[in-house]
Design brief:
This protein has 154 residues and is an alpha+beta fold. It is 31% helix and 38% strand. It is built from 4 helices and 7 strands; from the N terminus they run H-H-H-E-E-H-E-E-E-E-E. Strands 1, 2, 3, 4, 5, 6 and 7 form a 7-stranded mixed beta sheet that branches. The radius of gyration is 20 Å and the shape is globular. It starts with a helix and ends in a 9-residue tail after the last strand. About 7% of the residues have low confidence.
Length: 154
C-alpha cells in the first residue's frame, strides 16, 4: 500500500511539472499577430496578444544629443493605428527575431526598419516582454529604439 501511495504521489508531482513548454515559434507568432494587426489597422487583433495594461517606451537620442527614454500610452497608440488615414501606409519591416524563454517569461528582440508610404523613415529594435497569464501568453511590455542614422536599408 505504501508503494502504491508513493507511486501516486510521484505521478502527481510529474504531472504538475509536465506543462507544455512555450516555444520560440509561439513567441514569434505572438509578435507576428501584433504586427499583422498593426499593418492592417486592426487594433482588436493587436489587443488579442496584449495584456490589458502594456507599458510602452521609446529609447532615442533627441536633437540636442540627450539620451532619452520616453513613456507612451497604449490607448494613444491604438487610436493612432485605428484612425490612420487610408492613404498612409505604415510598414514596419522586421529584420529578425532573437527569442529567450524562461518558464513563464519570454523576451523577443526584433530589429526593424520603418517605412512610411514606401519611403524609409527610421530604424531600431523592438523589445517585447511576454508573460504567461491566466488567459495565455501576452505582451506585457514593449520598448523600442529609434534612429535615422546607421541603418542598413533594403
Amino acid at each position: 500500500m505504501k508503494s502504491l501511495l508513493f507511486i501516486f504521489a510521484i505521478s502527481l508531482t510529474t504531472l504538475g511539472y509536465s506543462q507544455t513548454e512555450f516555444t520560440n515559434t509561439e513567441a514569434k507568432e505572438i509578435v507576428d499577430v501584433f504586427f499583422d494587426g498593426f499593418h492592417k489597422g486592426d487594433t482588436t487583433l493587436m489587443k488579442s496578444v496584449m495584456a490589458t495594461k502594456v507599458p510602452l517606451q521609446t529609447a532615442f537620442t533627441d536633437k540636442e544629443g540627450n539620451h532619452t527614454v520616453s513613456n507612451g500610452d497604449l490607448d494613444n497608440l491604438l487610436k493612432a493605428i485605428a484612425d490612420r488615414p487610408s492613404d498612409q501606409k505604415w510598414d514596419e519591416r522586421l529584420l529578425g527575431y532573437e527569442i529567450q524563454i524562461d518558464g513563464n517569461l519570454a523576451h523577443v528582440w526584433t530589429p526593424y526598419e520603418f517605412w512610411f508610404n514606401d519611403t524609409f523613415s527610421h530604424c531600431g529594435a523592438n523589445a517585447f516582454t511576454l508573460a504567461k497569464t491566466n488567459t495565455g501568453w501576452k505582451i506585457i511590455h514593449l520598448i523600442d529604439s529609434r534612429r535615422k542614422s546607421s541603418c542598413k536599408q533594403n
